Amino acid sequence: MAQDQPPPGSDAGRGSRQHRDEQDHLVLRSAEQFKALGHPVRHRMVNVLRQRPATLRQLADVLRVSKGTIGYHVRVLREAGLVRLAETRQVRGGTEQYFALVSRTFKVHEDAPVGPEFLINAALGEMAPDQPGEPSHTALRHLWLTDTEAHALEARLRAMASEAHPADPAYGRPYGLLVSLFRADVPSLPPDDAR
Question: Is the confidence at residue 89, as pLDDT, over 70?
């Protein structure tokens, strides 16, 4: 779901190109980027812009926030290098600006000042209440794995999470997938000599 490189002359954000990896992800690493994404309105705005570029008015309408407030949040996202001016159009004597993400996919750098809690909190903020008949599943499991098994499971989870799906309301409804394999802080009992 990679997006084309920003056109010359657009404000693609300070240094965004050098932070892209080979799959055209924007690699997040600065405190400014995480602060920008940490606000609920801006987080929702990023998810809306994954669908297509939009004007301030379109964003204000869909997010049910004033156009002035949307303008402020777009400026914060632009300054953090997450959103760019994609296009301008002349309409009825005025100029309409379309804003787009610099990349439809973001990846947290391994040395970023945040940890998995950033993604977990983002997922919690997106979760809509369960509705009868809708697919939904959340579970916490503990698996006892060898290092080899853990690496193999990690590879399978990465492959599953990286499958491309269109961000298009005509295609379907949005669902979130939070995948996390982590070393659990669960103490191990010694063998029971009584058995």
Answer: yes
